[in-house]
Amino acid sequence: MTLVALDELAIQRAKTGDLAALENVYRAYEGTVYTIARRMCRTAEDAEDVLQETFLEVCNSIRRFRGTGHGSLTAWVKRIAASKALMRLRAEKYRETDDLTEDGPSAAKRDSDVALRLDLEEALSRLSDTSRAVVWLHDVEGYTHEEIAELMGKTVSFSKSQLSRAHARLRRMLGEEAQC
Amino acid sequence: MLRHCTMAELLDIRDGEGSTAARAHVDDCGACRTELDRLYQRVASLKALPSLRPPRERWSTVRERLVSQRRRRWNIGVAVAGVTAAAALVAVVGVGGVPQLSLTNDVAPSAITPVELESLRGQSRQLEGLLREVEQHGRVIDGLTASAIADLEDRIALIDAGIEHATVGNAPRNDLASLWQQRLALMDALVNVHVRQVAYEGF
Hints:
The complex is a heterodimer.
Chain A: H1 8-15, H2 19-40, H3 44-61, H4 69-91, H5 105-111, H6 120-126, H7 129-140, H8 145-152, H9 156-173
Helix pairs in contact in A: 1-2, 2-3, 2-4, 3-4, 7-9, 8-9
Chain B: H1 7-14, H2 20-28, H3 30-47, H4 59-94, H5 114-135, H6 143-168, H7 173-202
Helix pairs in contact in B: 2-3, 4-6, 5-7, 6-7
């Protein structure tokens, strides 16, 4: 992966709206943003749209970015990416209807995955959109349940129960027999 | 605890929030300890998944849309400045033609003084400062709030373009004041959105 290092000067230049500087921001973060988008969204096309929407927002709002340094810019860009990915999921009405319950027909279909030894990426992709997003944001990106609840417009307990169901399902799909 | 831990309880333990009873049970129960270890391993594997690269070059599309947005805002800014200047001209003609240059020293009752205009700018700066304070927490915001904020910021950008044009084009002070007043109203709304967000978090 080609990473473009961004120093304080490069960030300041991007804040002025300079297109070459904004392209450097894009080059530095396109992999990070696409990874979040692809892990959260169901299709590569959706992830590409999220990538594009994220960078339009980044380029339009960077002059108002108050942080300093590469680290805080990374967190800011990631937050925009997560928000755009969730907006995409919300726009699609979560596509699945069993996000709030595991008792629907899709859940039964997924239960046929029991004892299948899928690889982790495949198993992740088989989770419901909401569960997948919660797992990624909490376990990989380090968001708290409070932050996820706020991003999703849901409650903390909703986020926690989605995470719990997701892990139970991942365990089954990965062929890990429950010990308890 | 007489039963095995649920996934939710194991996740709570992993996140440092587990109950004393659940933690004590895991200490004594080999099966639950194994399950907790698997949970740690699964999360480690998730974190170790490779980074991905977009399959297609997207910067050119982003760039095109940025340039197009800027052009549109610029055109609207020109239009806003043009409309305000035209409105001022109509107002002047409507009240009796082009005024004589301060020979009579009469000023329209609603005329904005430089001091008043500067006061509007000052209020705007104050709101900018307030906005910086409420923004600096770097909080996560929900999609609807983000959308409302983006909309207000876009409208402020539009007004800024109008102010710039009006300033460069030496537009009448009243027109400039009108633009600054619109900016103040939008800034006020933007600060309110952020403050409500903070209040919600506090709640």
